[in-house]
Amino acid sequence: MIGFLHPWVLLGLAAASIPVLLHLLARREPPTVVFPAVRYLITTTREHQRRLKLQNLLLLLLRTLLVVALVLAAAGPTMPLRGVAGHAASAMVLIVDNSPSSGVVVSGTARLAQLQAAGRAVLKRATPDDALWLISADGIPRRGDPVTLADQVSRLSVSPRRLDLGEALRLAREVLASESRPGEIVLLSDLQASAVSPAEVSTPLLVGRITASPPPNTGIGRLELGPQPWSSDGGRIAVALVGDSGPPLPLSASIGNRPARQALIRVGGIASLNLPAVPSGWWAVTVQLDPDELRMDDRRVGVVRVAPVARVTWNPQDRFIAAACQVLEANRRLARGDEITLGRLGRVGSVVMPPADPAELGALNRALAARGIPWSFGALVVTPGATDSNSIVGRTRVLRRYQLRSTASGRTGVLVTAAGSPWLVRSGGVLLLGSRLEPTWTELPVSAGFMPFIDVLLNRLARGELTIANAAPGDVIDLPDLVTTVRQGEREWQVEGGGKFRPSDLGEYYLLAGRDTVGALSVNPDPRESLLAPASESEIRRLWKGAQVVDLTEVGGFAFSSGSRGDLRGALLWSALVLGLLELGMASGWRRAQ
Amino acid sequence: MNRPAGSPRRARLDLLDPLEVSKLGGIEVVTEGVVEGFLSGLHRSPRRGFSVEFAEHRMYQPGDELRYVDWKILGRNDRLYVKQFEEETNLRAMVVCDVSRSMAWTGSPDTVLPKLAYAQRLIAALALVLLRQRDATGLIIFDDEVRAVVPPRARMSHWRQLLHTLAELEAGAGTAAEPALRRVVDQLRRRGLVVFVSDLLLDRALALKALRFLRHRGHQVLVLHIMDPGEVTLGGPAEARFEDPETRAAVVLRPRDWAGAYRETVRSVVGEWRLACRRHGIKYHRVTTDTPFGMVLREALAPASRPG
Question: Does A25 reach chain B within 8 Å, measured CB to CB?
Fold first, then answer.
């Protein structure tokens, strides 16, 4: 299909009507000339009319074609051509999949090196007229000239971030959407089956794939640290492997710099290990396997909070709360004490529910205001709704709730929302819950998530801790309110509470509110990266219609020929020249003959 | 009589551009100048051979002019014989002039005489030459009908009458040559010379029929086809509506596109006239109005144009 570099120039095709218009305009009202020998003219025209009409028609056609050829040439037409030495100015997005799986070492060479060599081969064929972008696992399209991009390709390292190839193709398509030049996408990847997702590819797509089979690989797919905070007695972790099945592998787990615990584990199984007691504080837990061809997934980290359990006072009349607290007490997840008052406003930390008697609401609001809490209970909402998805309580049905009104500017301190409105908020050590924890108000008390919710509520939230989250590099994390700093080792990022944070490296990140650590973030490779099995060629063609799949070592030769297009400007200009000469020759020849 | 300025005799007016010549004076003056130049330029007199060829003797009869008595025979045989000549009288010529509206046209008024003005001067010169040879010369003027007839006379004073008729010529309407040509028969009882001066923008079949009739009657016929240079080569604006002044027929075309084909058509028409005339023993000359009068006279009065 013919494309154009400057399609707006095609408006000039209207100029093709100029010869016809001139012809028509010139025909209007010619002057009258008295001429006695009109009979000779009549004889002449009778004998030559047909020939002259044909000549004029031919000249008109030639002139029109000449204008059309010139306008088309100016519009920069291109069309798919194979086997041509050069290529038309093209727009190309080069996707180099430097996701963790590209770090697999085969015969002493990382697969990324093969991808880089292929990328340089592709860019070597580019010309300064081409518009080029490079997309790697970080998902940022970078534009540059061939030399710059080749340098960037050479400096690529194995990224901890997973690259969803379908997403990358969509991004490339968006990049090319604004380009008038014919576009092409070149994807260089090991084509992990787990990374291949459907994408509608309207642009020519050249896929360079590594044909050699990947080596067997096993990685740590999951690390579970159990309920937090851990008590000073230590904790228990669960580890699961992912990858190719094989014999049991030795696994070591450690907390802080304490001696590691060992276990044997195989793919599909779960290893549970007890980690030793450590003092109160934030601790990094590390599990790792012996090194194999893919190193990045052989290690996984997590963050645990070690602290004494919360000492709680609750009202035995609150049936569901009392039951939950007794169970947690029996499991040593809380103790009786006056550190936190559950159900009503206490002197220190409190989890405040709306009173059963609405008449007490005014007094409660006044007490909250007296304590300087910028939240109060508002009108009763009896429209059933659900909590919005969150890490604290998940999605739970809420039948009745009081509106939680902020008396300060903004909505600082919102932890959970229901139907878009605050449902669980915090101010200092005081938590306000929009519904009573009873089945007539919410289904939470009769759901499986109730016990963990009470645990989190008392041991973390009521004590000022916000979150302990897991993520993969590149994931976007919603930072809780009050967080001012994110720290990883010596590095720190100043952030705004309620904003977004995108960790780029593996490891543990701590969320700080001022000088207090209020949360932590564990960043580990996506476990899907451990699955190295490639997608079949037929699967790729099914998911990416029209894709041309070639061996990685040959991709350089195919670039700018599958998607790139031959420049038709030269041919059109030659045509215009021939048409012009024809017109000149015929017009002058006929004139001379006359 | 005023002589044209610039010593016309020496300037050979017969060889000058007709428009330039016409500016020197009236028809009479100019024509005299042209004829003088023409005659002085001839290497031999056009009079030679004019009706003085001896044919035979015959017995004198009462009434015969005594000047034709052959006195030598009378002296030898004592008998009266008179000399009989091929032509006993001088040539009788009729000029038939087309004054249709098309004859009033010129393609370049600044540089070329209208066809009618050219014809006037040419006829006047021709008549003067003929009259100086003692040839009787008459004139018939026509457009779509016969406008004037001047019977042939051999007196020099007759030239004034011809001039007077020519000077009063005005372009008429259409063209109908056949009646005018047939009127010649009334004026030339014996064989004579008929000079048909026209742009030939007429019905060729009818005109040829009439010319053949004249030839059949024994007349020598000379056709002077008067053409303006603008009729030979088509020109004009880029595109124009060309209109016939007589018939109002019109055609719209671009002269540049048609010039070549038109030239071919004119050549073809002239060729057809020439061929048709030759086939019937008619002498044909195409005369463009920028041709010096002397050259036309030379063609017209060449010996072959004598009746024979």
Answer: no
From the list A30, A36, A48, the residue facing B105 with the nearest CB is A36
Residue A53 sits in the same domain as residue A122: no
Q: Are A239 and A297 members of one domain?
A: yes
Q: Which of A445, A461, A477 is the last residue of a domain?
A: A461
Q: How far apart are CA B296 and CA B134, in angstroms?
A: 21
Structural domain includes residue A533? no
Lowest-confidence segment of A12-16, A64-68, A394-398, A450-454 by average pLDDT: A12-16
- Range name among A111-125, A306-320, A421-435, B127-141 with the lowest pLDDT average: B127-141
Q: Is the pLDDT of residue A116 over 90?
A: yes
- Minimal Cα distance from A31: which residue of B? B240
Residue A86 lies in a domain: no
- Check whether residue A523 and residue A399 sit in a common domain: no
What letter does residue A465 receive in the DSSP assignment? -
Transcribe A78-141 into DSSP letters: EEE-SS-SS----EEEEEE--SGGGG-EETTEEHHHHHHHHHHHHHHT--TTSEEEEE-TT---
Residue A564: the pLDDT is 52
Spatial contact of A268 and A221, defined as CB atoms under 8 Å apart: no
DSSP state of A389: P
- Give the residue, A250 or A392, on which the prediction is more confident: A250
pLDDT band for position A106 (cuts 50, 70, 90): confident
pLDDT band at residue A591 using 50, 70 and 90 as cut-offs: low
Smallest Cα distance from B264 to chain A, Å: 8
Residue A69: name the closest of A580, A587, A518, A594 by CA.
A580
Whose structure tokens read 């008179």? B82
> How do strand A491-494 and strand A485-488 relate by DSSP bridges?
antiparallel
Are A154 and A209 in the same domain?
yes
Q: How many domains does chain A have?
A: 4
Asked if B250's CB is within 8 angstroms of A38's CB, the reply is yes
Share of chain A above pLDDT 70, in %: 95
In which domain, by residue range, is A201 found?
93-215+541-563
CATH code, domain carrying A301: 2.60.40.10
Residue type, B185: V
Domain residue limits, chain B:
54-85, 90-305
Judge whether A83 lies within some domain.
Answer: no
CATH code, domain carrying A334: 3.40.50.880
Q: Are residues A345 and A479 in the same domain?
A: no
CB-based burial of residue B88 (10 Å sphere; 0-12 exposed, 13-18 middle, 19+ buried)?
exposed
Chain B residues touching chain A at CB-CB below 8 Å: 101-102, 105, 199, 201, 228, 230-231, 234, 236-247, 249-253, 256-266, 269
The verdict on A222 and A211 lying in the same domain is no
**Of A461, A483, A509, which residue is a domain's last?**
A461
Decide if A265 is inside a domain: yes
Q: How many CA atoms lie within 13 A of A122 on its CB side?
A: 40
The least confident of A175-189, B23-37, B45-59 is B45-59
ipTM, interface predicted TM-score of the complex: 0.76
Q: How far is B253 from chain A (nearest CA, A)?
A: 9
Cβ contact, residue pair A33, B237, below 8 Å: yes
pLDDT at B45: 38
Which of A23, A40, A53 has the highest number of chain B CBs within 10 A, making it the mutation to test binding with B?
A: A40
Superfamily of domain B90-305: von Willebrand factor, type A domain (3.40.50.410)
> Which range among A194-203, A433-442, A450-459, B291-300 has the greatest average pLDDT?
A433-442
Chain mean pLDDT for chain A: 87
Q: What is the spatial distance between Cα B38 and Cα B32, in angstroms, rounded to a whole number?
A: 10
Residues of B in contact with A33 (CB under 8 A): 236-237, 240-243
Chain B contact for A40 (CB, 8 A cutoff): yes
User: What integer pLDDT is reported at residue B44 of this predicted model?
Assistant: 39
Q: Same structural domain for residues A547 and A517?
A: no
pLDDT tens for A266-281 read 988 889 999 988 888 8
